Amino acid sequence: QVQLVESGGGLVQPGGSLSLSCSASGSVPGFNVMGWYRQAPGKEREMVATITAGGWANYADSVKGRFTISKESGVNTVHLQMNNLNSHDTAVYYCAVHAIGGAANYWGQGTQVTVSS
Fold first, then answer.
1. Phi first, then psi: what are they for 101, rounded to 5°?
2. pLDDT digits (tens, 9 = 90+) for 23-59
C-alpha cells in the first residue's frame, strides 16, 4: 500500500558530496518514522539516519557530522545530504517508512552510491 522512490545516487570522488531524495506515496501511516539505510556487497544492511514527523533526527556514529537528514513540511519526502564522502560510504542506499505503534515497514528499491577516485 506504500510506495517509496529514491533518487540522487551516483559516482563521486572521495571528499565530495551527494544528496539523496525519497518520496513516499499511497497509504502512508499517519504516525511514522522515515529513514535511510545502506548495504554494501557482502555486508548486512545498516541504519544511516532516521527522522520523525516532528523533525527529530538520529544518526549512525559513522556518519555523524558528515550526513544530514531532513524532511519536507507537510509531505512524506525525506532527503539525505552526504558530505566528506569516503570509500566506506559506498553502498546501495534504501529509504524506509516505519509505522509507529505497528510492525509495518516499507522499503524503496535503493539507489547506488559509489565513492571512488
1. 90, 5
2. 999 998 878 899 999 999 999 999 999 999 888 999 9
If you ran DSSP here, which 8-state letter would residue 30 be given? S
DSSP 76: S
**Residue 57 β-bridge partners:** 51
Which strands make up the sheet holding 2-7, listed edge to edge? 2-7, 18-26, 77-82, 67-71
Closest residue by Cα to residue 76 from 96, 57, 58: 96
CA distances from 71 to 21, 45, 74, 90, 116 (A): 10, 22, 9, 23, 28
- pLDDT confidence band for 82 (50 / 70 / 90): very high
The three cell numbers of residue 42 are: 557482502
